[in-house]
Fold this sequence. Notes:
The chain has a single domain (9-81, 89-152), classed as Four Helix Bundle (Hemerythrin (Met), subunit A) (Up-down Bundle). The chain has helices spanning 4-21, 39-55, 67-72, 88-103, 124-152; strands at residues 113-118, 121-123. α1 runs antiparallel to α4 (88-103), α2 (39-55) packs parallel to α4 and α2 (39-55) runs antiparallel to α5. It has a two-stranded antiparallel ribbon with strand order 1-2. It has 5 helices and 2 strands; from the N terminus they run ααααββα. It is mainly alpha-helical and 153 residues long. A hairpin with a 2-residue loop joins β1 and β2 (121-123).
Amino acid sequence: MKHPITFQLNMAREWCLDVAQSCPSELADVQLEVFPNTIRWQLGHILTVAERMLFQVPFSSSLIPSSFMKWFDSGSTPRDWVDQPPTMSELIEQLKNQQNRFIAIPAEQFEIRLDPPFFGYSSYGECAGFVIVHESFHVGKIDEMLRVIKYRS
């Protein structure tokens, strides 16, 4: 039986991948005035935040390129992109690879205490809980963006 956190990480990521794969590529970079970012940015942001929260602490085992942070970190925006960011296909592949790493997290790792706390979270399990909520929020935003973009098209 899967640990409840592993189950929820996987469930949130499955939803993310379903929504991402339903997005026509021509809509991924549509920038509407009512949204500060694009669907491609949202996916990259989900990826980079999960990577930071689950694979940079406490073991420093991040596998995504450091350039992803400049494109997708909190406060960034596609309007500021100078270099070409990863494609939707590349992001979806990275999200799938990361999902496999979620599933491989040993259950006992969620009990590890973080001293000092990381972003205010005092255990690895709390970091994972944030990732679940964060991912779900942004996938909901992507779903909303898709509906608005399709409605306006």
